[in-house]
Amino acid sequence: MPLPETMFCAQQIKVPPELPDILKQFTKAAIRTQPRDVLQWAAGYFSALSKGEPLPVKERIEMPIATQKTDTGLTLGLLKILHKQLAPKTLVNVAELKEKWKYLCLPEEQLKAILQLDSFSEEVEWMKILALGCSVLGGSLLSSMKYACEILTTDPDGGPAHIAFQTFSFLYSYLASIDGEIPEEKIEAFLISIKKQADQQAGMVQLRNFLTHPSTLSLSRLPLSTKQ
Fold this sequence. Notes:
Blueprint: H1 19-33, H2 38-51, H3 76-86, E1 91-93, H4 94-103, H5 108-115, E2 123-125, H6 126-138, H7 141-152, E3 162-164, H8 165-179, H9 184-199, E4 204-206, H10 207-211
Antiparallel strand pairs: 1-2, 3-4
Helix pairs in contact: 3-6, 6-7, 7-8, 8-9
C-alpha cells in the first residue's frame, strides 16, 4: 500500500536565514570564476568555506587571450587563486596542492609536468611552484618574471607592480637555475644591477624598470615554453 503524500505548508518549511546569501555569493563567484566543471569547483568552494579558508574565486572574469590558440589550462587568474590559498603555508604538501589543483578543474598532467622540473619531495616550497606556474604562462624568463610581479604585487591593477628585491632575486635565481643556460656570473651581475635600482625604491623592484633593463631582452627561454 503506497504511503500517503506528505503535505507541507509555508509555515512548516523553515529556510535557514543565512542560506539565501550563501547561494547568492556562490552564484556570483561561479559567474566570476567560470569553472569548467561547476560541480567539482563547487566541492572546493564549499570545502574552503566550511574551513574558513580562502575561496577558489577569481578577482574578476578573465577574458581569453586573443593570441592564445589552445587552452593551456592554467591562467593568471587561477594561479592567483592558488597563491591566495597556499602562500600562507610556505611549505605545501603535494597532496594538498593536487587537491586545490583538482578543485580548479586544471589538467592533472600539467601539474605532473611542473613537479617533474625539480626534485620535489612530499612537501614543496610554494614560491617555487608559483615560479614554475608563471613559466607555464609566460614561456620565457622575461614573461615569467612579469607574471610573478603581477601576482605578488600589492599595487592595484595597472600600477607599477612593485615587489621586494629579496623575493624578485629568489624567483629570478630559481627560474634561471631551472633554465640551466644562463651563466652564474651573468645572473649575479644582473641582480646586482637590479638591486641598485631597487635601493632607490625602498628595496622594491618595479616591473617597468625590470622590463626596460638592458639585460632583460636577452633572457632565454624556459623548459615549459611549450604549453602543456
